[in-house]
Write a structure and sequence with these properties.
14 helices, 3-stranded antiparallel beta sheet, mainly alpha
Length: 300
């Protein structure tokens, strides 16, 4: 990628920051802008900002819809595509504000999302399957040195406490710091969750005990360069979950996809099965609309 495109990517992120976007949005939008410029350079031989046209934007959108997903089978999901489209639209807005000659306008192009179809593809884990996974944490990485094994085990315990026990979204859990935990009130303060909304999430006594043990008996003893609660990245946490899933002697568990977000889906279905009201579940999960919460009825 040429120097001018690199400069624009960096300045684009600074511009978004002045508009008050969350750090995670700044990072993702900057990455999406970089991928767009790389596409223009390699596929369209476009190397100058004033050479970018509206047709280039639409051709990129078409390319993305056909491109294979680099992380899993198939193409990019509808939510992922719409996030990229929004980022490129915002980039177009930035280019126009910066006075780039004949800069393309925001397209407002989005793919209609069939949330019911998406939710029906989800395979949540049962309560017994969650217990089986948790009981096998201590058996993971048995050949690894003690310190490495301890770190992974503590991370896995915290993953189940926060993503299953508290129903957090992937980015919500990853951004948490020890200062966001109130052990006296047994609550977690989620800052700028989805749609930039803050919320308070309650912890059960069992979850609170796991988090408290993690903070005071493990994490606070480490010398880290960041203040995040988790010592690992979300990519590493996902790898640990896959390792945990692989060692369980259960075909039902191994036939499903285990991820941070699936744990959130699982607790939602379990609360619904236990009779918690839609309104309470929606507040617990941080849903903006009751319609989103109601989709979980199709899972049970």
């Amino acid at each position: 990628m040429n120097t001018s495109f690199t400069y624009v990517c960096n300045d684009y992120a600074k511009w978004l920051d002045t508009l008050g976007f969350a750090a995670s949005v700044l990072y993702n939008h900057q990455c999406y802008a970089k991928y767009f410029f790389e596409y223009l350079h390699t596929k369209k031989n476009v190397t100058a900002l004033n050479a970018i046209t509206q047709s280039h934007v639409y051709s990129y959108f078409e390319y993305l819809q056909q491109r294979k997903n680099k992380k899993r089978k198939g193409t990019l999901s509808t939510p992922s595509l719409n996030c990229i489209f929004a980022a490129i639209d915002k980039l177009c807005e930035y280019l126009n504000q910066m006075g780039v000659t004949a800069a393309p306008s925001p397209t407002n192009f989005r793919i209609a999302e069939d949330k019911l179809a998406a939710i029906n593809k989800i395979q949540p884990f049962t309560i017994d399957e969650i217990k089986t996974l948790q009981s096998n944490i201590i058996n993971t990485y048995s050949d690894a040195p003690f310190k490495q094994r301890e770190a992974i085990h503590e991370d896995l315990k915290l993953i189940f406490a926060l993503y299953y026990g508290c129903g957090l979204r992937r980015s919500e859990g990853y951004k948490l710091t020890a200062n966001d935990i109130d052990f006296d009130k047994k609550t977690i303060f989620v800052q700028q969750g989805k749609n930039y909304k803050d919320r308070i999430v309650p912890m059960s006594a069992a979850v609170c005990k796991v988090v408290e043990n993690y903070v005071y008996n493990y994490r606070n003893l480490l010398k880290l360069k960041h203040n995040r609660l988790f010592i690992s990245t979300t990519k590493t946490m996902t790898e640990h979950l896959k390792k945990l899933q692989a060692i369980t002697n259960c075909n039902a568990i191994q036939s499903k996809r285990l991820s941070l977000h699936i744990l959130r889906h699982s607790i939602a279905t379990h609360l619904l099965q236990k009779g918690m009201s839609m309104e309470q579940i929606g507040r617990f999960l941080g849903h903006s609309s009751l319609n989103t919460t109601q989709l979980y009825t199709h899972l049970i």
